[in-house]
């Protein structure tokens, strides 16, 4: 036999009641179930409200009518006209009784807990009676059961304690003489020995179901609600939360203790004691298998089962020498709080015993402080104890799962995820059961923290990177196209979800925490974006407080660079193809590295040198593995390489430069390439990464241009000058050709000195054979001494550069 419990939403409308009855009918084909029902959704709240109104002497007739209508509407929809009257009459009788009670409250202006319980009982009575009657159309033997008659409690109105022995007998007895019927039992209500109605407190209808299930040794208790069972985290906060198939009782208790509102743990106790499985199912998605809560759970591969949280918590800290070695201090403290019904959510005590920190609901703080000040007056006056300190605006996050007990490194994973995302932990507690690790953090960090921790534990299931991209030019645009195309692959094969959560350029900016649609980003940005303001872009990115955040700088501007420090401080990683940051003052270059390290985030700039070619990475690997770099020789200007590879035969210099620009090889300002500045920046960054403290002026550069070109004030004037100096370039070209040589602009780093020179090389030179925008770099090191390590390939262009930025992005957080 099974017990099926349906909550408020499941009896909340005609449509839902039809679904409910279908489910009951289905179950009846196996065996008659016991059906426990709640009041229609919203009714219990209305009853509470009316009771309070009556107490204040305010009229409540309108609300009463509303409750009547709510039920009548269902009756009209679900019953044929001929069958409606008896149900209308019964509901009318219930509501008349209720009105009399409310009238009495109104006359006396007094609302006792006893009367309140009586008032509340009408919600379950009306709903259950109504549903049991509607059921007659489909089921030949439904029986309305006033459940209060079978659950016996003490006199503690509002939250009565059940007399389990008597209750078990009554239920068994009643059931055995009515086994041939489908019982529709009112949830939540009970009665005391004087037959006065009591209520079972929060989660009362679930409790009713558990009590009946336990008394009758049910095969299973089904809790039908409006969500897909228990999930790994609150789905409103964590989009990637997913339903759990199975949980142990303890795990369910721990998970629901902090927040998961699906069931209320104490209600499960009767089922727990009898080892009766509990299944949480979804009325609106009956195909969902449900979350099973039982004692014999299958071993699971998941390190934790879920993350729960409380978003409003305060902590009280007590410290003082008077506590050291004083046995019984915490006993006194916590029995005091428990006596006064203050629920202590979490406790931590330092091992020096010098301080105790505990968390309570913010509404309990004032009372708790008063109680403490009274109880410990002597200690406080003698300064053995400092005044209690209070901290508000905090939240609790707890990871829960029995597997934690057997898996080392669980807390490491938790704290790594929090630390990497810059979340400050105020207090920590681990249940001695090791089923639960709880941390107290700032309330504003909660959503970010839960998402980061969810990623960390279910990662290997799915990891998200939230990226904010500045610059939508040549590189930025291409990156979006590549991301869009690759996203499904990454999600499927690498369990990685990359979301572009912000885009900005000099004109507009737009944000979306769910990720912008990359097939329409341009229209979105232009039509719905707000006016761009760099500081605001950064502020907004920080304010969104998303986990695993990456700032991507695809501009060629100094402006974003001024924010890098601030971005690192806010534990956001940076990926950039913009060389302006790393090639300015050495102190700044160094400060970025230090800040990224200090804040535990990544700073990747592979495309600063040789676009997507693995140069920065290779150098780093060589150095980290203890190799010594003795010489670097390189061609690192894709533009100049292209020019020298194509400025042949009839080709003109000016036209060739133009082609390089059209192919996307040049800097936004091509003068930066031709005057050697861009190459200089790359040599400088390489030299610094190789461990040399150099400034821009330390890099010696040969000019390949005549002075007039170098001094051209605008790009247009620059091109005019190139055209005017055609003869100069022709001479250069022919000189090389006459000697069977080619022109190469080559950088060299040796003995801590960097220089870039124009050379003519013959076919024996390793840099002779190049084409397109090829870059080449050769590392001579202690280990690669006679035959250097060489990296060669296209070193400019939107595709290869965006791809390099892309690779950097997906490496964030990997190390
Ligand atoms: N073209 C190539 O092969 C390679 C380029 N790079 C680097 O890529 C970067 C971007 O180059 P392109 O896409 O060609 O440039 P671009 O001129 O086409 O685009 C630059 C973008 O940055 C935006 N921007 C500029 N200043 C800004 C600011 N202060 N605030 C917000 N947005 C701003 C612009 O609105 C534009 O959308 C440059 O730093 C370049 O050195 C790096 C390696 C190779
Ligand atoms: N403009 C640059 C592009 C890469 O940084 C070049 O020509 O090399
Ligand atoms: Na590179």
UniProtKB/TrEMBL annotation:
Which cofactor names does the annotation list?
a metal cation
Q: Which Gene3D superfamilies match?
A: Acetylglutamate kinase-like, Aspartokinase, catalytic domain, Dihydrodipicolinate Reductase, domain 2, NAD(P)-binding Rossmann-like Domain, VC0802-like
Q: Give the signal peptide, or none.
A: none
Q: Where is the ACT domain?
A: 318-387, 399-466
Coiled coil ranges (UniProt) are none
Q: Which InterPro entries match?
A: AceGlu_kinase-like_sf (IPR036393), ACT-like_dom_sf (IPR045865), ACT_Aspartokinase (IPR054352), ACT_dom (IPR002912), AK-HD (IPR049638), Asp/Glu/Uridylate_kinase (IPR001048), Asp/hSer_DH_NAD-bd (IPR005106), Asp_kinase (IPR001341)
Q: What does this protein do?
A: Bifunctional aspartate kinase and homoserine dehydrogenase that catalyzes the first and the third steps toward the synthesis of lysine, methionine and threonine from aspartate.
Family, according to the entry, reads as follows: In the N-terminal section; belongs to the aspartokinase family. In the C-terminal section; belongs to the homoserine dehydrogenase family.
Enzyme Commission numbers on file: 1.1.1.3, 2.7.2.4
Keyword Iron on entry: no
Matching entries from Pfam families are given as: AA_kinase, ACT_9, Homoserine_dh, NAD_binding_3
Question: What is the protein name for this chain?
Answer: Bifunctional aspartate kinase/homoserine dehydrogenase I
This protein's pathway reads: Amino-acid biosynthesis; L-threonine biosynthesis; L-threonine from L-aspartate: step 3/5; Amino-acid biosynthesis; L-methionine biosynthesis via de novo pathway; L-homoserine from L-aspartate: step 1/3; Amino-acid biosynthesis; L-lysine biosynthesis via DAP pathway; (S)-tetrahydrodipicolinate from L-aspartate: step 1/4; Amino-acid biosynthesis; L-methionine biosynthesis via de novo pathway; L-homoserine from L-aspartate: step 3/3
